[in-house]
Amino acid sequence: MSKLPAIAIMGASGRMGRMLINAVNASDKAILGGVTEQAGHDWIGQDLGLAMGVAKMGVKVEDDPLELFARVQAVIDFTSPKATMEYAKIAAQARLVHVIGTTGLSEEDGQKLSAAARHAVIVRAGNMSLGVNLLTLLTKKVAAALDEDFDIEVIEAHHRHKVDAPSGTALMLGEAAAEGRGVELKDVSERGRDGITGARNRGDIGFASVRGGDVVGEHDVVFAADGERLVLRHLATDRSIFARGALKAALWGQGKKPGEYNMMDVLGL
Question: What single string gives the DSSP state of each residue in 195-240?
Answer without folding.
Answer: SS--SPPTT-EEEEEEE-TT--EEEEEEEEETTEEEEEEEEE--TH
